[in-house]
Amino acid sequence: MRLEQNFVIHRSLDQVWKAFQDIPAMADCLPGATLLEDRGNGVYSGHIQSKLGPFSARFEGEAAVTQDEASKSGHVEGKGIDKRGNSRSKLVLDYRLEPIGTDTRVTILADVTLSGPIAQFGRTGLVTESANIFIHEFVGNLEKKLSNGTTGVSTAAVKAPELKGFSLLVKSLIAWMRHRLGLSPS
Asked: Model pTM?
């Protein structure tokens, strides 16, 4: 499944780029994510937990992160296993930052592969809508983190909560239905 997301962070390109260099701080902004270890050379281990309706998954795995300061872009390759539910995930993600006036636009292109029981959600618009909600939460958390300091990121200031299943399911279904009916987002 291919996902594309664009969002704006209300901070300068330099400030957002600096924040993206701090992988532990970025992990704190991701709902349900826990960074466990920096294995060196841009490789990190951790887990991400989320719930969608009755389905709960905790993907344990690792991600390799490479960044290019000249183009203000990065590449992430991750994989994880939900041992309890016997599902697997693989992620290949590219991001690019660019200035938009005094703000920064972030563009994300991701290829997500799901296998096992969780793959049933990959066939619906719920995954796309869940990704939209996930990104919205990430942006809000990053904005809070950046507002705690004038130039840096305070890792202790913000820790994103786990996305709760029923809440995420309801938000996703409403967003999907609004999209299908041609209504504007609320």
From this structure: 0.77
